[in-house]
Specification:
Elements lengths: L1 H17 L2 H22 L3 H6 L9 H8 L6 H5 L5 H11 L4 H4 L6 H6 L11 H25 L5 H12 L2 H9 L3 H14 L5 H18 L7 H5 L3 H16 L10 H15 L9 H16 L8 H16 L5 H15 L11 H10 L8 H9 L15 H36 L1
Helix pairs in contact: 2-10, 4-6, 6-13, 9-10, 9-12, 12-13, 13-15, 17-18, 18-19, 19-20, 19-22, 21-22
Length: about 425
């Protein structure tokens, strides 16, 4: 009897050893992809229209519209673009690759540029602009694959390849590809920073600092990862990163006719966007609070009031940044920063791409599922897997509700880990004093 019990426990241990964080991620991702593929085939392609951006006539236009908006070199005054100056500089380079006879036919204002979709003037009907979009996606996919392969370099080749494919086919990444959003570039640059900011080689550390500055220069919020430099007391590297970041904002302005006033206009447009009334649909902490308010109104008839939602979001972000300093594990530091970044932003579902970064850091450093990492692992996987979650009669996905719940759970779990870490530090200090 005892021999049978011992054999049973050995089997359990053997299964738990096989079910590592990386194998769990791969199994769930592959299962989700198969389920998604079956849904697409079964629905005769209708699921594709529900899975991606709700406007089925807008695919790729985050990229292509941005090329239009630098025409005339008045991106903020004329088109009220939300992208920082460095991003507009990149699109200015792409604009110079489009034949003039095409550019001259473009509308001169934001509203009319939206209206040409589906007409003969649509940029997706021209060879030059479509090739730019396709090449952008190909180059980004190759760079993502290389970075994931490098991050997982200590794993077997088959495992590295499957993890790279899983990241490329994750929900947030596919959504970003469909939009043609430069958040993909921000992901690449941020991942490069995390891989090399603590390198022994000066050149790699400097390139990592420059990469983070450029990431912040094209999408702003990756700048929060700079706190990792302060945590490692890399003060001079942190200061150089800040200087690179400032240059990435200021120098591109001189390419446009708006000059330095472009910075002021960009800040005003960004603040106006941030002040727009949020709804329960979204990924920021404000959106979560609006969801809670809707539930309380529907079931208990209670109105929370929305005036303090913005302040609460800032407090939550500050909390995430502060607790990141207390963690020993690199993946938990990165997760705290990522969570703070996402809960602060008011971006579309492509923001989920960033959750694959702490997941990769975790897969690289953790070989076993334990009681103190299994829930956080499950949360990161839930925010990345390509499950076809949506309402058939509504353009909004239940994925949004799932994401809000998971992010709140992750926030609580990180808070608990912070309290555990704080108790350990206090106990260690008392023992030292004693």
């Amino acid at each position: 009897m005892k021999k049978q019990e011992g054999s049973f426990y050995r089997k359990i241990i053997g299964i738990s050893n096989l079910l590592t964080p990386s194998t769990t991620f791969l199994i769930v991702t592959m299962g989700s992809l198969l389920f998604l593929l079956w849904n697409i085939i079964d629905s005769h392609g209708a699921v594709i229209e529900q899975y991606f951006f709700y406007n089925i006539r807008d695919t790729g236009m985050d990229f292509l519209h941005s090329i239009e908006y630098v025409r005339g070199r008045h991106p903020y005054e004329q088109f009220h673009t939300l992208y920082p100056p460095l991003a507009n500089l990149m699109f200015m380079v792409l604009f110079r690759m489009v034949p003039e006879w095409i550019c001259h036919r473009w509308p001169d204002n934001f509203v009319d540029s939206i209206g040409i979709r589906g007409t003969d003037l649509d940029l997706r009907t021209y060879q030059a602009t479509m090739l730019l979009f396709i090449l952008f996606i190909i180059v980004c996919a190759v760079l993502i694959n290389q970075l994931v392969q490098y991050a997982m370099r200590e794993r077997a080749g088959w495992e590295r390849n499957l993890i790279a494919w899983s990241v490329l086919l994750s929900y947030g990444m596919l959504y970003a590809f469909e939009r043609g959003n430069i958040i993909i570039l921000a992901w690449i640059l941020t991942m490069f920073f995390l891989l090399f900011y603590d390198s022994d080689k000066f050149v790699l550390r400097e390139l990592a600092a420059l990469a983070l500055a450029v990431a912040a220069g094209i999408k702003l919020y990756p700048a929060l990862f700079g706190v990792l430099l302060f945590r490692r007391k890399s003060m001079f590297l942190a200061l150089r990163t800040i200087s690179y970041g400032l240059m990435s904002v200021i120098l591109p302005c001189f390419i446009f006719k708006e000059g330095l006033s472009a910075v002021r206009m960009w800040i005003e447009i960004t603040l106006e966007f941030g002040a727009s009334e949020p709804s329960p649909i979204g990924n920021s902490f404000q959106n979560i609070l609006f969801s809670v308010q809707d539930l309380m109104r529907e079931f208990w008839g209670v109105e929370m009031g929305t005036g303090w939602f913005g302040i609460a979001s800032i407090v939550v972000v500050a909390f995430c940044i502060l607790i990141s300093f207390s963690f020993k594990e690199d993946w938990r530091k990165v997760l705290a920063i990522t969570l703070g970044m996402v809960l602060f932003s008011k971006q579309a579902d492509y923001i989920y791409v960033f959750f694959s970064i702490p997941l990769l850091v975790m897969l690289r450093g953790e070989n076993r599922l334990r009681w103190n990492n299994v829930l956080e692992t499950a949360g990161m996987i839930a925010l990345t897997v390509p499950l076809p979650l949506f309402y058939e009669k509504d353009i909004y996905y239940p994925r949004n509700t799932l994401a809000q719940i998971v992010m709140v759970i992750l926030l609580v779990l990180l808070g608990i880990q912070f309290l555990i870490r704080l108790r350990e530090m206090i106990r260690s200090k008392n023992e030292t004093v004693g």
